[in-house]
Structure formats: C-alpha cells, structure tokens
Specification:
- The protein has 121 residues and is mostly helical.
- It has one domain.
- It has two helices and no strands.
Amino acid sequence: MSSIAKGDGDLTQRIPITGEEEITRLSQSFNQFISQIHDIIRESVNATNEVASLGREIAAMGSETRKLNAEQMQESDHVATGATEMSQTIQEIADNADKAADAVKNAATDCLSRLLVSEYR
C-alpha cells in the first residue's frame, strides 16, 4: 500500500491477499475500492478524449461555416455590384430615350413649322 501511495498512483497494483481473515477482508475491500477508482478514472479519460474529439469536430464545423459565410458575403457583394451597374445602365437608357423623344419632338415641331411657313407663302 505504501508503494501505491508514494508512487505515481499506479491503480493497477493490488495488495496480495494472504494471511489472517481480518487482514484478508481488509485487503479485498481495499483492492475493490482501488478497482472502482481505476474504473472511474479510465471512464473519465475516455469521456475526456471523446469531448476533445467532439471539440475538434465543432471547431472544424465552425471554420467551415466561417468559410461558407465569407463566400456567401462575397457573392452577395457581386450581386449588389451587378444590381448597381444594371440600375446605372437603365438610368442611362432612360436618359437616352428622353433625349431621343426630345429630338423627335423638336424634329416634328421643325417640320410642322416649315410646313406651315411654306403653306403661307
């Protein structure tokens, strides 16, 4: 028992069960107690490893989510830029249509004026 207490906590060591009945029962109880502690620690290590593994998976998912989010934001910027350019083009077309309509109106007015002038002559 002294080597277990002073050593590196090796829970695989057990007290040899020999001797008087009272010491034998004490040794058996101690060995059972150490076995239970050993099992608890082994389960804790397994749970810790599983949590660490899940943490790595969550971190990887977070990284992938950030990457996809950045790509989506970039695509949204492209769409917004395209919409702005399209709006500017539509405005230019509307301005050109207004100018064309004014030119047609001026030409029609000019033709009508010339026609009236020539009829009064």
